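Need Cupin 1's 3D structure for a figure. Predict it.
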Amino acid sequence: MEIDLSPRLPKKLFGGNGGSYHSWSPDELPMLREGNIGAAKLVLEKNGFALPHYSDSSKVGYVLQGCGTAGIVLPEKEEKVVAIKKGDAIALPFGVITWWYNREDTELVVLFLGETSKAHERGEFTYFFLNGPDGIFTGFSTEFVCRAWDLDENLVKTLVTKQTGYRIVKLADNFVMTEPKVEHRDSMVLNCEEAPLDVDVKNGGRVVVLNTKNLPLVGTVGFGADLVRLDGNAMCSPGFSCDSALQVTYIVSGSGRVQIVGVDGRRVLDTTVKAGNLFIVPRFFVVSKIADPDGMAWFSIVTTPDPIFSHLAGSNGTWKSLSPQVIQAAFNVTPEVENAFRSKRNADAIFFPPPQ
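Structure prediction for Cupin 1:
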């Protein structure tokens, strides 16, 4: 059965004056369900506040726009309150409770990509809010809540019913939110736009990889992530994940062309992608990208903590590793053609600058 790999935009699920929540549906992007992957975006307006909650999936948050404050409570740990800004990545393992707040005029937009193999619905995140109209404690009887919180009935009813806003609310202009602490960012947040580069090719592109060294919590979420910035008209080498991982890619900025080739050498995707699009590369399928003149950037997760990629071009590509005789036999060509093929592409195996 063929699976539609076409890039998609998210749809709004809920929201109000304080902001909105948008999600990619596995019904429209079947590879989400097939690969047990969830993808969503949180948008907070000025003074928007996402009520405290947890979800049924581990994920990575990436700040696409704006700046704000995030509260993070790991199981059996104290609350960490961190300032977040564009380019920040935050690993969010199972059981973590978070809240999000934007005090600025510019919208705060956070992308979430995660793994849903243990989720209630494959390909979707399910959230459990601690309070509000659908909060956890609206489901318990007053007797249970009184016993749990050691409070009288009137106070419990006030706490449970006072917040009428649904999941995302707008706070008053004069509300003073908890201030973030600089030291709380350590080991919790990594800014991918400022971090040391793992790959840097002149006129080609740059890569920052999230790993346990620069963001220790990545080890607890079970998958890897990276930010790739491709220069104008540059190419990202054809390659595949050789450890059976899926690649989930969100276009952060710019635009370009993407091709994916699968079983039996069939091109299963050939399209233009732009900022806001999300697409998924199936296991072992080969993908390549060429940026438009203004360049292109994307944020990806790979469904294994330490992904291994094999590139099919460049100085470190698979073809350069094979002996001349094997290449001659495989292509059924003369030694002269093999030599031309081997010597032509000596650039880095990941990024190729545009032709001069």
